[in-house]
């Protein structure tokens, strides 16, 4: 049984997902293994292998091949001449160094861009030029500022056009050898690089589907790959729109949960307010009862006093104390549910847990 067959059987037994632990010096290079399994003819065409690192090791999943991979793409026609160039292409024509390409391949690159822009605009995507006239970095760079952009459903995909280079063994000259013998810091390069006629398109922005780079190959020039590139832009735009809708829905659900938490907090706040009011009434009643007992004791004491100014003053004091005691007793007021004041944000914090009273 081959590795691919064994892996597929293991995935089938585990329900399509397994995690391989990678510990020790002799651990398996799972990314390389998965890449080889993807190239195997044993892998069904309706399935794809996905692999990636996770906290517990290397996660391997067998998923259904997305429908867009089976779509039949119509070829994108490439004009033989730029008779009516797009405004983006015209801007690049007016700035010969905008692409940073040699003259022999500049015209072809512009025709490829014209064809790609025409194909994507038919899908109602918007195109714009990058920074014409600026000097772009080496062909080795993948993160250069885009030469032009295509916007699909709000997502901007940047395009960098690169000219491939041929590498040949460097033949040292007598001067280089002499300089190297004279100065220890001089290093003679191993290879020479010369611009070729091959081109490469590098995409940036959004979620990659097919790939992020397309290049001329011996059996397949870029002209035959433009349909895939145009589809890639559409797929990235659709994925971005789905993500935006999911984020909006997640935000809506979060707000609903926040609103429910706020409503629950208001109920809990009101109940807590009533309990505290009730406890305060009970404490006031006990306090008034003790005062009433004291007023009774005061009357008993004054009853034994002889008539005169001192007794008169004591009776006046008792009358005031008795009236005050009656006023402090909550049972002498109508008994009803207290009115709940409108809570402030800080009043609700104790009942909200991790939620913020000012918003979700």
Description of the molecule:
By secondary structure, the chain is α+β, with helices and mostly antiparallel strands. The protein has three domains: 3-65, no CATH class; 87-246, no CATH class; 262-351. It is 44% helix and 17% strand. It has helices at 3-13, 30-39, 87-94, 103-121, 174-182, 226-303, 309-328, 345-348; strands at 17-20, 47-54, 57-64, 126-129, 148-152, 155-169, 191-204, 213-215. The strands form two sheets. The chain has a five-stranded antiparallel sheet with strand order 4-5-6-7-8. Strands 1-3-2 form a three-stranded antiparallel sheet, covered by helices on one side. The radius of gyration is 41 Å and the shape is elongated.
Low-confidence stretches: 132-137
Percentage of residues assigned to helices: 40-55%
> What profile does the largest beta sheet have?
5 strands, antiparallel
Amino-to-carboxy terminus distance: 55 Å
Count of extended strands = 8
Radius of gyration from CA coordinates: 41 Å
List the helices and strands in order: HEHEEHHEEEHEEHHH
* Overall structural domain count: 3
* Average pLDDT for all residues: 91
User: What's the shape?
Assistant: elongated
Spatial strand order of the main sheet:
4-5-6-7-8
Secondary structure tally, helices:
8
Structural class: alpha+beta
How much strand content do the residues show?
Answer: 15-25%
């Amino acid at each position: 049984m081959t590795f691919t067959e064994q892996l597929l059987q293991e995935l089938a037994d585990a329900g399509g997902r397994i995690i391989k632990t990678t510990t020790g010096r002799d651990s398996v290079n799972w990314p390389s293994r998965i890449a080889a399994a993807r190239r195997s003819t044993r892998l069904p065409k309706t399935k794809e292998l996905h692999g990636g690192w996770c906290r517990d090791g290397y996660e391997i999943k067998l998923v259904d091949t997305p429908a867009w991979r089976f779509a039949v793409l119509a070829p994108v026609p490439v004009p033989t001449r730029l008779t009516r160039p797009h405004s983006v292409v015209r801007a690049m024509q007016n700035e010969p160094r905008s692409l940073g390409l040699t003259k022999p391949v500049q015209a072809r690159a512009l025709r490829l861009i014209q064809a790609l822009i025409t194909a994507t605009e038919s899908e109602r995507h918007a195109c714009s030029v990058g920074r014409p006239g600026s000097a772009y970095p080496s062909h080795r760079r993948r993160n250069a500022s885009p030469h032009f952009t295509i916007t699909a459903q709000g997502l901007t995909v940047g395009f960098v056009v690169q000219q491939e280079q041929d590498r040949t063994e460097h033949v040292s000259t007598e001067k280089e050898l002499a300089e190297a013998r004279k100065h220890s810091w001089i290093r003679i390069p191993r290879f020479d690089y010369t611009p070729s006629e091959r081109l490469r398109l590098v995409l940036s922005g959004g979620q990659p589907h097919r790939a992020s780079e397309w290049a001329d190959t011996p059996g397949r020039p870029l002209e035959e790959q433009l349909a895939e590139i145009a589809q890639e832009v559409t797929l990235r735009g659709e994925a971005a729109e789905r993500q935006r809708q999911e984020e909006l829905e997640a935000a809506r659900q979060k707000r609903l949960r926040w609103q429910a938490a706020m409503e629950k907090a208001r109920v809990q706040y009101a109940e807590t307010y009533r309990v505290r009011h009730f406890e305060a009434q009970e404490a006031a009643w006990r306090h008034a009862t003790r005062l009433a007992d004291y007023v009774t004791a005061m009357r008993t004491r004054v009853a034994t006093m002889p008539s005169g100014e001192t007794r008169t003053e004591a009776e006046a004091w008792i009358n005031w104390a008795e009236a005050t005691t009656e006023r402090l007793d909550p049972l002498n007021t109508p008994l009803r549910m207290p009115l709940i004041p409108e809570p402030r944000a800080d009043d609700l914090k104790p009942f909200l847990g991790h939620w913020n009273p000012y918003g979700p």
